[in-house]
Design a protein that fits this description.
Length: 129
């Protein structure tokens, strides 16, 4: 199988951290595109400053990175061939749900149907191993 109950719980947490932070990162970065500097270096520094001093961006960014660290630590004992698609599929669902709660247009019924099919495929893979 993919993993024990503890690893499965960690992978679910990873998916939640990855998926739910995406929409918050998008809203936290709002206004970034309005920064205009002539030199590339000044532009880059202005963008880093804008994001780095913005808690609406940094809090979800740090939570997202915690998810990445947990994922990395879990890979030592989990089956990669199942852990990766499982995490990605679940993260996508968390992204859709969080985005919807924040009022984003998530692509309607077709996007939701795609998610359900992806999740079913992952579950079949897990059951088969």
């Amino acid at each position: 199988g993919c993993c024990g109950a503890g690893e499965a719980a960690v992978l679910l947490l990873v998916a939640a951290l990855w998926g739910s932070t995406g929409p918050f990162l998008r809203t936290g970065a709002a206004g970034l595109e309005e920064l205009r500097h002539r030199s590339r270096l000044r532009q880059l520094l202005a963008e880093i400053r804008f994001l780095g001093l913005n808690y609406k961006y940094m809090v979800p960014f740090l939570l997202n990175q915690c998810g990445s660290l947990l994922f990395y630590l879990t890979l030592a004992s989990a089956d990669l061939s199942l852990a990766v698609p499982l995490c990605n599929s679940l993260a996508l669902i968390f992204t859709l749900v969080t985005g919807r709660m924040l009022g984003e247009d998530i692509g309607g019924k077709r996007a939701v149907a795609g998610m359900v099919l992806t999740l079913l495929g992952v579950m079949l893979c897990m059951a088969g191993s």
